[in-house]
Amino acid sequence: MSRRYLAFLLLLLCVPFALGQQTAPQSAIQEFLVLPQQRPSAMLAITGVNLIDGTSRAPRSDMTVLVLNGRIHTVGPSNAIAVPKGAEVFDANGLTLLPGLMDSHFHLDSDGTLPALFLSHGVTSVRDPGAWIEAYEKVRRSKENQPRLFLAGPHIDGTMPAYPADSAVVRDAKETSLAVKRNLDDGASVIKAYFRLPLALIEEVARVAHARGIPVTAHLEIVDADDAIRAGIDGLEHATSVGTALLPPREAEAYRQAVLADNAARSVGRYRVWSQLDLKSERASRLLKLMASRNVTLSPTLAVFERRDGDKDATGMHVQGFRQMVAFTGQAHRVGVRVVAGSHSSVPHAERGWAYQREMELLVEAGLTPLQAIQAGTLDNAKFFRVANRLGSIEAGKQADLVLVEGDPSQNILHLRRVKRVMIDGAWLAEARK
Ligand SMILES: [Zn+2]
Prior knowledge:
Elements: H1 15-18, E1 43-51, E2 60-68, E3 71-77, E4 88-91, E5 95-99, E6 101-103, H2 114-120, E7 123-128, H3 137-141, E8 148-151, E9 155-157, E10 167-169, H4 173-185, E11 191-193, H5 199-211, E12 216-218, H6 225-230, E13 235-237, H7 243-246, H8 249-261, H9 265-276, H10 282-293, E14 297-299, H11 302-305, H12 316-334, E15 338-339, H13 355-366, H14 370-377, H15 379-385, E16 402-406, E17 419-424, E18 427-428
Bound molecules: zinc ion.
């Protein structure tokens, strides 16, 4: 085996799933981990740091975190923790330590160097919600450090898919079940239902994935979100996925038929839909209650939809539509829906490599406090991925994926761009790239 990487880390205790249990133990989730080139120090101490641990807990100043063999061993006030002899010490005075950032909506889009760039900006885990696992072959063989890769396999779609190259097209329940099982056998940690998949087949996707302990997320345009939630989905990608569920039925039907006739109708259509939505409607509050009560996670991917006055090709309708997406995200958060951070990789208002940070800024604009936005990007994403037993917060026993930034992002979310150092699986990477 190469010194450099171990291509496939299987955190799997599969016996219970082979028996077809319906429960969803977190150990069902696999990831593809390219192990860091730097060997981790056996014992490492980060001292004097301002700590944001990924939970709702307020930041704590002058803390020490001990990392032992790639895991967080001890977390406590610097004056109460004795740094063991022989430990490598990093004096982090003036810096803030956060859990490694997790991205629930990352697309490779043939840009093989993007995952490593995201990692250097603090994103230690990415989940691609719809691409062949083979599409990541080169990334996994690269000589650069890579974030943890949580993959889905091709998204499951109906005929006339919008993205043929990223789709497995299915036409009935049997084909659906086979396609989902193939993704799962290949190492999928989530299954994505795409928007041409009819409701009954979404239900079949959920049935098959859940039997193996794997969550299902969806990008919707044609199926109403409330119906898809009752069919069993665990997550919604893009705020726009709830559009038809919020519109009056006649307008929803017109939008649905337009997209059925032409996938491209959605690109301007959804801004039109969103610019007209009444977010105070009875339908809106019913849907939000359903999302909250069923524990459905929303990854709104606001940054990819961002349109502002003065943007090229943006009309008042675009600007108003986007404003409503931001407002809906805030509303969802306030009623207790789990809102998480998904970058969509490249977005109009961020330079290459900074889409994740842009999404965090927009979550704050939506009404999350900076601390809540950080939780959305760390522990809440870990829950969405079903890996919160080992990632997502700085707590004893968890894997040491950590980010050091200058300043304090709980005071100013822009400080998330001031990445100083990144640790993955207990090993520091080289200094962050700009
Ligand atoms: Zn996407």
